[in-house]
Amino acid sequence: MYLISSRFIRRYSKPRYYCKRDLLISWLIVIIFLLTISFNLEKSYSFIQKHHSSFYSLYSTPIAKRTLIIVRTSHHCESRLKYLLTSWISRYKDKQNQQNIFLLTDHYIKNSSYDKFANVILTNCPQTHNKFDLCCKTANEFEFYYNVTKDNNQFDWMCRFDDDQYLNLDNLYSYLGELDSSIPYYIGRTSTHPLGIHGLKQKFRFATYGGGVCYSKVLLKKLRLYINKSITPNECVKTGLSDDAYMGYTIEHKLNVSLTVLNDRLHSHLEHLDISFRRLTLQNLLQAITFGFAWDRYQLSWMPIIHEIIQLAKQNLNNEHSLMLLWNFLRDYEKLHPENLTEKFDDSCTSYHKRVKAAKTPSKTQQLTTRITPVEKITVKKIV
Ligand SMILES: *[C@@H]1O[C@H](CO)[C@@H](O)[C@H](O)[C@H]1NC(C)=O
Ligand SMILES: *[C@@H]1O[C@H](CO)[C@@H](O)[C@H](O)[C@H]1NC(C)=O
Ligand SMILES: *[C@@H]1O[C@H](CO)[C@@H](O)[C@H](O)[C@H]1NC(C)=O
Ligand SMILES: *[C@@H]1O[C@H](CO)[C@@H](O)[C@H](O)[C@H]1NC(C)=O
Ligand SMILES: *[C@@H]1O[C@H](CO)[C@@H](O)[C@H](O)[C@H]1NC(C)=O
């Protein structure tokens, strides 16, 4: 009876017993499931954390962080820097935000505008404006890129500009953001005619440095074999090419990579006023990536004003008419009030003062030559 009863109990209590056990097992499963999820989440999270930088750079790093910007100046031209700081670099008053912008110079002037730049690269290049010096600075620009990308190549682009240029950063970024930096890109404003050098059958084009130039990551990698401080300055002198022309020779001729011409958006100080600035509409202004300034045309002191017009346009797109009037007034002002250049010189660079003073009675032609020493003019003469 007992056995029966016991068996009975066992038999009939089974379902209840199983029921409890099932419940326990179910709970265990749920707990294990939850633990697994949380563990997996933690794992995925730490995986993402660990690979954050590479994920980030691949898919979501803003183009600004992937673009290295170098602005070349000389200690002779310190007075130009304040215009950069009150225009396109103004939004970077907070030095923290100048992370990707580097000023490259030959000498640091203490207690000057230099102090307002977060990043200054010093070169040991001679402080003149001849081919050797300019090519030395160019080699330094590349060396700097290779230095900063040695351990972690976060920069897909390297763009270099001069100190007498306005740069519309938003336009630069939106333009580059559309391009694939794993394609060799050499982007710039081309000289009007292709150049030739002695002993070379084919002519080549080059991007004038006065208009701003961008190189993609893959092209920079290729250029590493060709551009360095020990060889490039001497090669420039040997070939008789200025730094920008030498880059064109290396890229178009040696590397067989064609220049991507962006003449309608990149502007240099060497353009003819009548076919360039004087014809720019408000739309042209807003679409441009760079403007070149020079003492005898759109002066550097106009840079902050032009910058303000561009900023206003961003905030007030429906006020186009007022902006157009403002821009046209500024644009036409120069035409209606041509400068009397007699006995004047570019006073934004002290080196030009000396040269003009050195000439006993400088004729207008001499003064014009003095101010146009920037390289493109020299090389243009070489056109065959
Ligand atoms: C730095 O410049 C300021 C204003 O330009 C001047 O008052 C100050 O004496 C200068 N300091 C040095 C160390 O030259
Ligand atoms: C690149 O790094 C080397 C070695 O640290 C240094 O000597 C050189 O000055 C750097 N060049 C530039 C342009 O930053
Ligand atoms: C510089 O470039 C030249 C020409 O490509 C090469 O022969 C030389 O080894 C390079 N020098 C250095 C220090 O990289
Ligand atoms: C240069 O590139 C073009 C097109 O990209 C190609 O057709 C040509 O064969 C190349 N020339 C040499 C010498 O590699
Ligand atoms: C230009 O300026 C010079 C000296 O400043 C003066 O002698 C000359 O008359 C001026 N020419 C014109 C056309 O105003």
From TrEMBL:
Positions of the Fringe-like glycosyltransferase domain: 68-296
Cross-referenced InterPro entries, in alphabetical order?
A: Fringe-like_glycosylTrfase (IPR003378)
Report the subcellular localization: Endomembrane system; Membrane
Entry's transmembrane regions:
21-41
Superkingdom of this protein's organism: Eukaryota
| Membrane topology of the entry | Single-pass membrane protein; Single-pass type II membrane protein
Supply one GO molecular-function term: glycosyltransferase activity
Q: Name one GO cellular component term.
A: membrane
Protein name per the record: Fringe-like glycosyltransferase domain-containing protein
- Name the species this protein comes from: Didymodactylos carnosus
Upper lineage = Eukaryota, Metazoa, Spiralia, Gnathifera, Rotifera
